[in-house]
């Protein structure tokens, strides 16, 4: 009776191991956020000091963006902390979606920094001013690039390893900050040649660059909110199921991200002469192979349909609902 009851419920696989893996992913994410927060805050503080005595609006835009990038660690840290909570009867899939909400906050912060940097650049175009301490301004630009590029590589690498779209979006944000920091060198060079208008023009170019990363980050988060996955993952899942002994055909395959873990719901077709226990064994085997061979998959629900030569429709009762 126990075995038959288990056959009618979603199959589980090494739940303790999967919980440990999820906690480890969140811990890695928190570690990345803490280290990158320190690096970017230090970089932005150095730049802020130079902005104060140089008056460079291009460097001001870069500094503001670095501060904004450092602050995006806050919603992500909250999301990773929430994601460690166990599922409840209300939140039956857990709290992994908090990362998607954090992604929305990150996109909003990027948009706000772009708007402010653009405003300051336009204001300086209308009322040009000389930039002082050009050597320090150039040095601040280089420091901004090095700090941001290091953080970007770190965030993107770990974000992809743990499957966090929000962390990858934050890494892309930092990468653009690095290239905009290099643009500050153009501002300092133009001012040194006697072109004070170069500073606000570079400020506007920085704003445009921020808008491009805004587009990429928004697309990344939009895909997660709409349960989009890489079609190659669906193809891979179908191949794994097709090669599973006992599986005659593969029906629908649905995948979705919950935080930085994948969940799957799949339909397979098995021989109609199999007993309930035998069909259950095929379903368990299919789930086992999916979890082991599909990256970032934490759980799968496998539904087995009987296949036969009599042409019987085993879903007649559900036809009207489909």
TrEMBL record:
Keyword flag Transport: yes
Domain Cation efflux protein cytoplasmic: 230-306
KW Transmembrane (keyword) present: yes
Topology relative to the membrane: Multi-pass membrane protein
Region (Disordered): 1-20, 302-322
GO annotation, cellular component aspect: plasma membrane
Main subcellular localisation: membrane
An MF annotation (GO) of this entry: ferrous iron transmembrane transporter activity
Keyword tags: Cell membrane, Ion transport, Membrane, Transmembrane, Transmembrane helix, Transport
Domain Cation efflux protein transmembrane, first and last residues per copy: 34-226
Residue intervals passing through the bilayer: 32-57, 63-80, 101-119, 201-218
Subcellular localization: Cell membrane
Any GO BP annotation: intracellular zinc ion homeostasis
Ranges of biased composition (kind: Basic and acidic residues): 11-20
One Pfam family cited in the UniProt record for this chain: ZT_dimer
InterPro entries linked: Cation_efflux, Cation_efflux_CTD, Cation_efflux_CTD_sf, Cation_efflux_TM, Cation_efflux_TMD_sf, CDF_Transporter
Sequence similarity: Belongs to the cation diffusion facilitator (CDF) transporter (TC 2.A.4) family.
Protein name: Cation diffusion facilitator family transporter
Organism whose genome encodes this protein: Streptosporangium subroseum
Source organism phylogeny: Bacteria, Bacillati, Actinomycetota, Actinomycetes, Streptosporangiales
